[in-house]
Amino acid sequence: LDGEIVPGTTSILKSAGLTDHYRGINKDVLDVAAARGTRAHLHVEKYEDDNSFDLIPEGEEGYLQAYLSMKHDTGYQSIGQEFILIHPVMRYGLTIDSVGYFPKDQGRVHTEAPYVLAIVDLKTSDLYPHYVGPQVAAYREGYNANFPEQPATKNYALKLCKDGKYKLEEYPHEEHWRAFRLAFGIYHHKLKYGVA
């Protein structure tokens, strides 16, 4: 950013050892999984942009179906996808998959109060709370620092499955924001001493 290098959320969590659940997994396997996740994100983003189901490769329709099932079941209304931001004070980068409204009462759309604004991180792999919780907490804090007039109040991860099923998991903010701040401190401590 204007010549300044800012760490990303994942780099910070990795520096603190919170991504170790991937240790020992073959890089080729991780690359295939990452590519699958990227494609699933793109399918969701394209659907939210223009309600399109075009160009979804055979065998990958289930990921979008899982997202649509979650929307149907919960009443979730996205206000945007792929927010690329920098926390203006803490100076870390983040990319939020989805921001939107969940009705407090099922069956009500976001134009009918009460509702809650939430950060939703999309996953096609398992939900590891020790990693995903701090990740979405950092996203929420970064979003709120950039948009204080409309703060998010809930943190979710949404696992999209190939068979069209989903798992929506809420993460308590304070516990996971505290963990991210500790990871942030570790990252900068290691950077200061040339170990990051």
In short:
This protein is α+β, with helices and mostly antiparallel strands. Helix content is 42%, strand content 21%.
The low-pLDDT segments are none
- The spatial strand order of the largest sheet comes to 1-2-3-4-5
Percent in strands: 15-25%
What fraction, in percent, of the residue positions are helical? 40-55%
The number of helical segments is: 5
Terminal-residue CA separation = 20 Å
The computed structural class is alpha+beta
Mean pLDDT across the residues is 89
Shape: globular
* Rg measurement, Å: 17 Å
Order of helices and strands: HHHEEEHEEH
Please, could you describe this protein's structure?
The chain has helices at residues 9-15, 27-50, 61-74, 129-146, 173-192; strands spanning 77-86, 93-103, 115-123, 154-160, 166-170. By secondary structure, the chain is an alpha+beta fold. Strands 1-2-3-4-5 form a five-stranded mixed sheet, sandwiched between helices. Strand 4 and strand 5 (166-170) form a beta hairpin. The model has no long low-confidence stretch (mean pLDDT 89).
Main traits of this protein?
alpha+beta, about 200 residues, five-stranded mixed beta sheet
Give the topology.
Blueprint: H1 9-15, H2 27-50, H3 61-74, E1 77-86, E2 93-103, E3 115-123, H4 129-146, E4 154-160, E5 166-170, H5 173-192
Parallel strand pairs: 3-4
Antiparallel strand pairs: 1-2, 2-3, 4-5
Helix pairs in contact: 1-5, 4-5
